[in-house]
Every structure is written in C-alpha cells, then in structure tokens.
Amino acid sequence: MAPDMGMTDRAVETETETETETVRGLVYGPSGKRLDAHRPSGASGASGATPTVLLWHGIGPDERDVLEPLARATAALGLLVLVPDWRSDAADGGRAHLLESLAFVRKEAGGLGGDGESFVVAGWSAGAGAALGVALRPESVEGWRPRAVVGLAGRYDVPARTTGTAPLDDLAAVRDPGVPVHLVHGSRDTVVDARRSRDLAQALRAADRSVTLQEPGTDHAGVIMTAYDPAADRCVPTTAEHALRAGRVAAGVLAGAAGGGA
Q1: Confidence band of 13 (pLDDT split at 50, 70, 90)
Q2: Which residues share a beta bridge with 213?
Q3: Roughly what angle, to the nearest 10 degrees, separates helices 68-75 and 241-258?
Q4: CB under 8 A, 24+ apart: contacts of 64-69
Q5: Distance CA 109, CA 156 (A)
Q6: Distance between CA 53 and CA 34 in Å, rounded?
Q7: Half-sphere exposure of 108 (CA within 13 A, CB side)
Q8: Which of 58, 85, 146, 177 is least enclosed, having the fewest CB within 10 Å?
Q9: Can you spell out the DSSP letters for 18-64?
Q10: Across the chain, what does the average pLDDT equal?
C-alpha cells in the first residue's frame, strides 16, 4: 500500500515547541498489521531523509498506542518514529510481525520522509531483546544491520522474539553486534530489574563493543512516559515528573543514536 495512506493528526510538543504530526494506521506486511508514523510536521516534503527509528512495544499484543508519548517526544527532536503493532501471542511469538514491520520501514520510510536504509531499531521490554537480536543475527534480515540499537527496560538472557535465541548467548558465541548499543533502564524497575541491562552492558564492554547505559529514576512503565493502569491492564500516559524526566532521557538517546538532535 502507499505509505501516505492513513489518518493524520498534528500536535505541538510543549517543551520543545516543535510541531509534530502522526499518520495512523498504515498497513504493513501480509498479516495486515498496522503502524503509526510520528514525525516533525512537513517531514514528508523536506529535502533529505529525516533520521528514523523503528520502535517496538513490549509483550502486550497490539499496543502501539502505549509508545505514543515517547514516540511523540522523540519526533519533536526531529525524527521519524515508526511504531508497529505486533502480537506476542502469535504462533511464532511475534517474529513474523516484527520482521515484516522492519521490511516495511526499509521499503517505505523514504516515502514518509525518513531513511529506509540506515535507521535505529529500538524496543521497550520484550521489544528491546527483539531489537538487539536483529543486530546480533543479521542473517535474520538478509544481512542488513541497523544504524544502532536502543534497548529500553529490556531483558537479554531470554530468547529474542526476532531470532529465538538469547542475545547474551549470541554475544558469548562471538557474534559481533556491529553497531552501537544504547540502553536505558529505570533504576526503580520491579518488572525487569535494571541488572538485566547492566549485565548486557558489562558483556558488551568485555567484548570491546560500543555501549552506553543510563538509569533514570523511574519504573518499567515510566521509562516510556507511562504508568501501569491495573483496571485497563496496560500502560497509559502519565504526567508524573519521574516518568516525564525518564522519557526525555529515552527520547534524547533515540535521537542521538539516529543522528538527530538531543
């Protein structure tokens, strides 16, 4: 389908006063899943490619909306941020959806004003391991490598949804990620302890690989500018200062990794 299809809305990011727009419901892949594109207003007509991020949500099925606060904050820094739905309860654990969304970005990001060849693959929670798996196992994406990987509150000692193997095991098998890895993990995370990111950072440093780790004072949901709502059984936007601060850190890391403003 043409990448300019979908509903578009606009907003002004209050802190930076940068106008952004969201194109909602773009269809990707044979499964007919949908994604949202968040970008600076007018990016689709700008000369040159806008730095681009593919951002995967966590294990909750079809939760692209959960990442909208962080995606908008990142778009306000001058990036195109593409956030797809995917289903962890699919028979393959979501692998096809994740890889189909990546293939869509490679093919269609240019039509959305972005860079379809050199972009960041990032993820939150289960999406973080999936993102790192792509870099560690480039054969899963026909040898392609992302510009960088950003992992938000991830766990890396369990099989990645994109590869079926644990990133730490792949790293121990001397698989070179070949790209910088940037980690953000809330120091008060009780869902996935911050030591999971520390362990990965230590392993990457021991292998002389490029890695950064930031631990803002927030929890699992706060790192993406949300709070967990038990009644809805999902994360929802929040105005809690610890989450807003952490989200600004995460947005800055995404922007820096993509080569945009921070």
Answers
A1: very low
A2: 183
A3: 50
A4: 64/34, 64/35, 64/36, 65/36, 66/224, 66/226, 66/234, 66/235, 66/236, 67/124, 67/224, 68/22, 68/36, 68/38, 68/237, 69/224, 69/225, 69/226, 69/237, 69/247
A5: 28
A6: 16
A7: 21
A8: 85
A9: EEEEEEEEEEETTTTEEEEEEEETTGGGSSSPBPEEEEE--SSTT-G
A10: 91
For residues 175 and 235, what is the distance between their CA atoms, to the nearest angstrom? Answer: 34
Q: CB–CB of 67/241 below 8 Å?
A: no
Q: To the nearest 5 percent, what fractions of the chain are helix, strand and coil?
A: 35, 25, 40
Mean pLDDT of 194-204: 97
- 256: pLDDT strictly greater than 70: yes
At residue 115's C-alpha, the angle toward residues 112 and 119, to 5°, is 125
Q: Kindly report, residue by residue over 106-129, the tens digit of the pLDDT.
A: 999 999 999 999 999 999 999 999
Phi-psi region of 32 (alpha: psi -120 to 50; beta: other; left: phi over 0): left
Sheet harboring 211-214: ordered strands across? 7-13, 18-28, 33-40, 80-84, 52-56, 120-124, 148-152, 181-184, 211-214
CATH topology of domain 7-258: Rossmann fold (3.40.50)
User: CB count, 10 Å around CB of 60?
Assistant: 15
Q: How many CB atoms are located within 10 Å of the residue 189 CB? A: 21
Say whether pLDDT at 240 is over 60. yes
